[in-house]
Amino acid sequence: MSETGEFAIDGRPLRVLVATDAWHPQVNGVVRSLDAVAREAPALGAELCFLTPEGYRGFRMPTYPEIRLSVVSPGEIARRIEAEAPDHLHIATEGPIGLLARRHCLKRNLPFTTSYHTKFPEYVAARLPVPETLSYAMLRHFHNAAAGIMVSTASLEADLAGRGFRRLLRWSRGVDTTLFRPGRPRVLDLPRPISLFVGRVAVEKNIEAFLTLDLPGSKVVIGDGPARASLASRFPDVHFLGLREGEALADLYASADVFVFPSLTDTFGIVLLEALASGLPVAAFPVTGPLDVIGGKPVGALDMDLGAAVRQALTCSREACREHALRYSWRESAREFLGNVRRCMAPPSIYRKARIRSSVESEA
To answer: What domains can be seen in the chain, in order of their start residue?
Structure first.
């Protein structure tokens, strides 16, 4: 079977509806991953459509103003799902839209998949006195109703399995190696070596562990978030450049000497691949995400002493970093995602029967 039709059904594209509370204008790994899979899906004989907060009333989350929690009725979500006529439903987030999509599937006895993107219990515990065990119990209840739970790395899979999550499936991530590459214009005229962080400037990213390091050269932070003003005030020697995207972001990666990833809670970290694709070695803690992407490869250093990791990473070959990143493509990421869908989906007739039954009930 040719690549362009490997997931097609009876000569037509496999149609996957993704229910997600994370959507534009948010800039995060969830949105970027879904965008990338949607771009690659047509070449693989599939199409993604989305059920998002767009068009619904909502309110902004405290400290996350770009995230809107939708106010929508179960009936409206059910009508949207039926109108899209998908072959399969994937739930990307555990917010209001994800919860109502899950409710619809359980009510109609329709299989669905979910994905576990962030260590939400750790994020909450960093802000509020909420026990991680309680948060994990809620997430376990949400996800274990799915026919499959997609996770990005082996270490995350092992962690969740140990916490009682079932039917775990691997869905890795990719990087645009055409955009992120060495040899781009160097736009940072600062003392070297330049240590770079890219990501949301918030407490859960543990950025302070990077900013307090005694390092030669310069420190640069790309991104925005609720902690930016306070951190910029406390660390006036650090260059906070705000949110950058596309070509401007790629130029900044290529202008640095080492990428510092202080997070202890990320499940993957697409920025790791962007840095490596740009020829930047990575310095990080030996935790989920860096352990899986870097591991024992000569493309960075993992150490509980982050300063030592930075110094060791600076000795790594930029060419080796680039070669390692070339192993991660968004095409292969999309293939993994769609393979998981095909493994978990019901026969197409099941969704059709559910729509017919719902229509009859509505008319009655």
So the answer is: 3-174+330-363 (3.40.50.2000), 194-325 (3.40.50.2000)
